[in-house]
Amino acid sequence: MAIERTLSIIKPDAVAKNVIGQIISRFEGAGLKVIAGRLVHLSRGEAERFYGVHAERPFFKDLVDFMVSGPVFVQVLEGEGAIAKNRELMGATDPKKAEPGTIRADFAESIDANAVHGSDAPETAAVEIAFFFPECNVYSR
Ligand code: UDP
Description:
- The protein is 39% helix and 20% strand.
- The longest helix has 11 residues.
- By secondary structure, it is an alpha+beta fold.
- Bound molecules: uridine-5'-diphosphate.
């Protein structure tokens, strides 16, 4: 399987719960490497741009409100099949439907405050990584 990069966000609910390290451990335990990372408090404009694909969805305003409610930890994960592997570790969007042992099953409260984001395809991963990290701040190893 190809070595891929994906964007992961630890959302405000999980940062507030102080479980950044526990979530990163899941990625490392599954063989993914953190090759870039930082805390950032998104502005409304940034959150709206990042989730622009959902602009017409009924939950868009609540999603933006949530994403600007506190700092988030943004990171680039690299490894074999990183995009699908990350989404498997995350679990379903709705934590009530997430497989036991997934990040959302263990750390998320609801479909809107659901602990993590992960890119869903190579094209979106490239766009989302570039949104937060210039190539000079990414340390492939
Ligand atoms: N979301 C929500 N209500 C919904 C569906 C999605 O609040 O009914 C939020 C949720 O935070 C989700 C994000 O919008 O993580 C993006 O939705 P998507 O369907 O892309 O889910 P994901 O890829 O994050 O699992």
